[in-house]
Model the fold of this input.
Amino acid sequence: MENELTGLQVYKFGGASVKDAAAILNLCRIVRDFGPQGPLLIVVSAMGKTTNALEEIYDLAYHGRDYSAQLTALQSYHEQAGKEIGKTLPHPGVELHKPDAGLESLFQGLANRLADLSPNSSYDEGYDQIVSFGEALSSYLVYYALASSLDEEVYHSGSMIITDSTWREGKVDWKETEKIVQGLSFNSNARILVTEGFTGQVKDDHRTTTLGREGSDYSAAIFAYCLRAASVTIWKDVPGLLNADPKIFPDTVLYPEISYQETIEMAFYGASVIHPKTLKPLADRHIPLRVKSFLDPGAPGTLIHDCQHPPLVPAFIRKGGQCLLSFESKDFAFISEENLEVIFGALAQARLKINLMQNSAISFSVCTDFNEMRVQRLLALLQGQFRVQYNSALTLFTIKHYDAASLERLTAGRELLLEQRTRSTFQFLVRE
Ligand code: ASP
Ligand code: MG
Done:
């Protein structure tokens, strides 16, 4: 087993890189012309904005509202891609790889699940059962396209990651996952295996979980860790890791090489190029991570690994959809350790993660991602003891390796609702 997997590479393709037939055919070209000779594990996200569409469909269904138009649109979108791929590829007649049958049965399964939803069941659990279909659909289409375009056997596997039952953010059971993943039968006939990102399953009852939005990068890292892969490549619509999002900042700089630690921090602050949980498993096993452009697969991109590098240019990171919560003790007492214990406990229970926090004499403030239901839950938990106020529709900016010019550039003319600085990092919160 060990030998067969020596030198395994992991490729992760995100939503944009599989968004339609042309994109999936481009993926096939990358695998064929730029891919390794040895074993390759391909991890895919749902096509384009499918996860958002499934979230909407699920929410409608859960609340007993009509979702049929959205479901039909999603089905046509996938069928259209399947048809176009089928028309273009050299071996479309291969019975086994017919896209229609596979897609049809997946959509049938999705429709049944939606019809069976009960308003009394847990919202988050149902979410995972439905939203996970995006990856089942896309990985099937990618498998179909690769199997039809390459002169070799390709394997397709459903989710192999074992988690606990923390819905929408399954915690990985590393031991169990390692057992399953290592049991994969890579052999000379099928050196390529396609699987889904983002999804997992609960060990004993196989109910589906997901790893958190944008979690497919993390899936790729989990597989790489378990298989002691030689490297991971994340294929994106940007040339690599940049010092800012080019959609927001015009003059970005590419980092050709960067350490795990720097990247972990950037991802934590909200650099959307890599999911924050991705780096640790890779750093633990010294597995290099490449970020490359699927639009320019020959370009070197960014290499993230164990390395020393000179000080970096300032990095600008923007995290939208934030809310600022402040807590004051009802009896105007100072914020004490006892109070903080209650507040932190409630934040954990409501599953709100702290992105920034600040304490003053009688008030304590935290910035978290805004999620209406979770914030309401927090309010319900704390309202007896604290006066809680919150503002939503905020953006958190982080400047790493800031200097006077970069500070001025980002803060000029803005009202800062909260700011914080360390030696290397400056963060502030503004209205969207
Ligand atoms: N499809 C999932 C999402 O959009 C996972 C991913 O793209 O990484 O959140
Ligand atoms: Mg996605």
Notes: The longest helix spans residues 68-88. The chain is about 40% helix and 25% strand. The CA atoms of residues 342 and 382 lie 8 Å apart.
